Structure formats: C-alpha cells, structure tokens
Amino acid sequence: MGTGIFIVSLDCEGKWGMTREGDPGHAHLTDAGLAEAYRTLLSTFARYDIPATFAFVMALALDRDAFAAIAPTYPGLEFYIADMKAGRSEGWHLPRTFGEVRADGRHEIASHGFIHRPLDDGAYIDADLAAAQHAAAGLGLHPTTLVYPRNLVGHVDRLAQHGFIGYREQRQRPAGVAGRLAGIAAEFDIRPKAQPIKAKTNGVVPIPCGHFVNWRFGARRRVPISVTSARLRNLVKDAARTGRVAHLWLHPHNIATAPDTAVALEAALAQARSDADRGRLRILTQEQYCREVAASG
C-alpha cells in the first residue's frame, strides 16, 4: 500500500460561472468580495504550506480590453454583453487577483475553459480550448490540466492536441433536482472513501473527480459545519490509510458568498498537513499528480 495523495482544485469563474437563469449568488460577486475570497484562500494555503490547483476561466484572468481583443464576436456572451451595457462590470475580470495567485509561487494555474461554456459540445470544444490557451499564452502561461466547465466531461481524445496532460473527472449523480438533493444528502456521509488512481487513457490522465467542499449557501446551509469538517477530515484520513486519492474542490466565490465555507476547508488542510508531516500523505497539484501517473506507465 503506497502513500496517500491529497489534491485541492479550485474552479475560478467569477461571474462566468453564473450565466444561467436562476444561478444563485450572482449579485453577490463583486470585485472586492471575490478578491478578498482569493486572499483568504491564499493565506490559508500558505498557513499549511499546501499547493493547490487554481483552474481559471481565462476570461476572468484578463482585463476587459485584453478580453475584447480576443473575443469581440465570440459566441455565448449574451449575459456578459448585457451586464457590460448595463454598467455591471463587477465580477467578470479579475486580472489583479489572478496576478496575486500567480505571484504566490506555490500553486498550479490550470484551465477552466475560455468563458465557462460547456465543452461536451463537439462542435465547440476545439475553438474554446484554442482561445483559452491563446489567452494563457498572452499571460506567459501554458496550462496543462483542465477542469471542465460545469463538470461536463466530453471529447477527452481532443485534449492532448491542445497541450493538456490531464483533466478532472466528472461526478456521477442524477441530473436536475434529484441530483441536487442527492448531493446535499451525501454531505451527511461522514465516512467518505478516497478514490483510486487510474491509468492514462486517450493520451491524458483522468484525475479523480473528488469531493465538493460544501458551499454554505441556500439549502446547503442546513449541513452543520461540524459535519462537513468531520467528513473532509475522514476523507483525508482514508487516503492516508489506503494509499488512495483525496481530492477536494470548490469555487473561490463559495467563500465570497458564504465565508464560513472556509472553516471546513481549513479542517481538511490541517488534517492533510498532519498526515503529510508523518509521511502518510503527499500533497500534489493536478499537474504533479498527472506527471506522476504518466511516468508510472
């Protein structure tokens, strides 16, 4: 039995992830609120010396002028254009915050697509990934792992040609209301299991889909912090015990709209650091994980 693995990934979207009718929390995503959420995350990761994977919607990392130069007529911008015309520019572009993440030096910058449009559409994926990688190149970056927008995985065989070596797998649960209810019910399972390592396929490494850090917003506020904290600590312990993978993920805007969400995350980080210091766990970014899996054959 090998040493367990711990990964944290963040879906960095801002308002790009809130472009469906009825998406919760849209009005709360201000530049200042989001910037403070990222700083909270960065300081928390620094406190436990934990590298994370920040998967950016690349449009969020650009300023408004740089984005306009790349995507003046890009499809799927209806919500964005409406907000710009109405003077609601908050939450769409955070180049300074992106710079703070990058300057920290310990974290991976991954891709979450160009504008958070789902990539399970075969007619669209190549154009989006090309635009995302072009935007990243303009920032002096070349992301190597992908978090699919809305966790809708598809056309994995096309990722390698865009320079990706791995992607986060999709959670398997029912669609619609049934899926949301199942997700909340799962938050009361305080003995979750770590996930196995899978071999490279289609030229890329599938990264275990992991466990969502409960966002204490709306109906999810009914899940006590103590329950979520115990759930995440036990997940980390299971990875250390079994040699499997504990992968946690969340959105920085979850912290902006429900700050106490960070309490449960910190409980997991403390457990991970403790197990890592005892040699029972290795803390990796998505990229580091993929390179290890690929090298192992």
Automatic annotation (TrEMBL):
Pfam families: Polysacc_deac_1. Signal peptide: none annotated. Residues 31-149 form the NodB homology domain. Transmembrane segments: none annotated. GO terms for biological process: carbohydrate metabolic process. Belongs to the polysaccharide deacetylase family. Is involved in generating a small heat-stable compound (Nod), an acylated oligomer of N-acetylglucosamine, that stimulates mitosis in various plant protoplasts. This is Chitooligosaccharide deacetylase.
